[in-house]
């Protein structure tokens, strides 16, 4: 099956710093990528949807200036958490889909655990 | 906003027992998926159901999509410790610009 990777797998940073998380589709071109956040013992919450070459669409309540998403190529999307604070500590998961059609399969990455001190 | 409520939230059973997890919503979904997620990892797709009333089997796992496409169930027969994990349903509703909505999750623990 298709593979999606994330880097780093874990990151610890000081409050106020910015952290960049990469999401790569390794064996297919991802027209659409999704970023999710998962707090402990909770489900996945969609943060934003990005299509290659266009601006990301953010879900209600997600600050676009705090969570910068760049989808500059068909195999790479990045999520930058700017001026991170302890409440941003979470498990961030990306997924990638080859096309724009709803029913095409989304492939999920292994997640990145962010801890902000 | 489409909400998917899963029940139970947590289930602890012994090896060999059967169990059923439910995923309910008031919204209609064009398709519904079930995932299993282990700690510190991303969710892994188990199955996709698209037709109302559809039943799919994956070894000891049986998935059913409700006739009205508003609910689904996952039944595990003779559970094994390897079945331990977080089970998530996720629905794709019509008119939502291709976004998956995840359920609240069911954490399953199977002990020897």
What's a concise summary of this model?
Chain A is mostly beta strands.
What distance lies between the first and last C-alpha atoms of chain A, to the nearest angstrom? 37 Å
Tell me roughly what share of residues is in helical segments of chain B: under 10%
Query: Cα-atom Rg of chain B, whole angstroms?
Result: 13 Å
What is the arithmetic mean of pLDDT of chain B?
Answer: 93
Give the SSE order of chain A as H and E letters: EEEEEEEEEEE
Largest interface summary: A-B, 27 and 23 residues
DSSP summary, beta strand count of chain B: 11
C-alpha termini separation of chain B = 40 Å
Q: Could you characterize what this model shows?
A:
The complex is a heterodimer of chains A (117) and B (112). With 117 residues, chain A is mostly beta strands. Chain A is 0% helix and 51% strand. Chain A contains no helices and eleven strands. Chain A has strands at residues 4-7, 10-13, 19-25, 32-38, 45-51, 57-58, 67-73, 76-81, 90-97, 106-108, 112-116. In chain A, a hairpin with a 5-residue loop joins β5 and β6. Chain A is globular. Helices cover 0% and strands 55% of the residues of chain B. Chain B is built from no helices and eleven strands. In chain B, a hairpin with a 6-residue loop joins β9 (85-93) and β10 (100-102). The model of chain B has no long low-confidence stretch (mean pLDDT 93).
Secondary-structure blueprint of this entry?
The complex is a heterodimer of chains A (117) and B (112).
Chain A: E1 4-7, E2 10-13, E3 19-25, E4 32-38, E5 45-51, E6 57-58, E7 67-73, E8 76-81, E9 90-97, E10 106-108, E11 112-116
Parallel strand pairs in A: 2-11
Antiparallel strand pairs in A: 1-3, 3-8, 4-5, 4-9, 5-6, 7-8, 9-10, 9-11
Chain B: E1 5-7, E2 10-14, E3 19-24, E4 29-37, E5 44-49, E6 55-58, E7 61-65, E8 71-76, E9 85-93, E10 100-102, E11 106-111
